[in-house]
Amino acid sequence: MAPMSLRERKKAKTRAAIRKAAYRLAAEQGWDAATTERIAEAAEVSPSTVVRYFPVREDILLTAENDEELEARLRARPAGEDPLASLRAVVLEAVRTALDEEPEETRLRARLMAEIPAVRARLTETTAVTGRRLAGAIADRTGRDADDLEVRVFTAAALGALREATVYWAEHDGADDLVALLDRAVDALRGGPALPARP
């Protein structure tokens, strides 16, 4: 990727300050207390700046800055690799990075996804946006159209499984290894839960 311009760096710095302020308020006082006005005050920007960067407040938690990077990494996977294996590799790498670089924010985001209906609802919308972007990469890899039903279903199912595993992790107080849970979620797409053995 080309290096960011000064303007782009300033915008990224502002977005980061807003995010940091929102996470701090949510961690200390709960998401309801993290109003646009209070986030703006904590980030030392105006409320209109917060709204300009994040028109929907929940997007401060959920808007994926790395969609472009995820798509690029997916396109860079070996051409003959199974699409599900490719998707697993890039998503697990992204989650490992998030856990390494922002462990508390990652845990808080997952907990809010599990506990706050508005966050969960918005997550469904942002996941759909990510899915459409990744569907284009999957379509190119498989020689299909991005609007192909199988491509759309595959991508939506994979991202839905990963989202559900993250919510499961939060509901169980982050006691399990999130990367391992995501790995299990991808495996579940291949065959679903096994039937019990007959006596």
UniProtKB/TrEMBL annotation:
InterPro entries: Homeodomain-like_sf, HTH-type_TetR-like_transc_reg, HTH_TetR, MftR_C. The keyword Transcription regulation applies. Residues 35-54 bind DNA. It comes from the Bacteria. PROSITE patterns: HTH_TETR_2. Keywords: DNA-binding, Transcription, Transcription regulation. Residues 12-72 form the HTH tetR-type domain. This is TetR family transcriptional regulator. It comes from Streptomyces litmocidini. The lineage of its organism: Bacteria, Bacillati, Actinomycetota, Actinomycetes, Kitasatosporales.
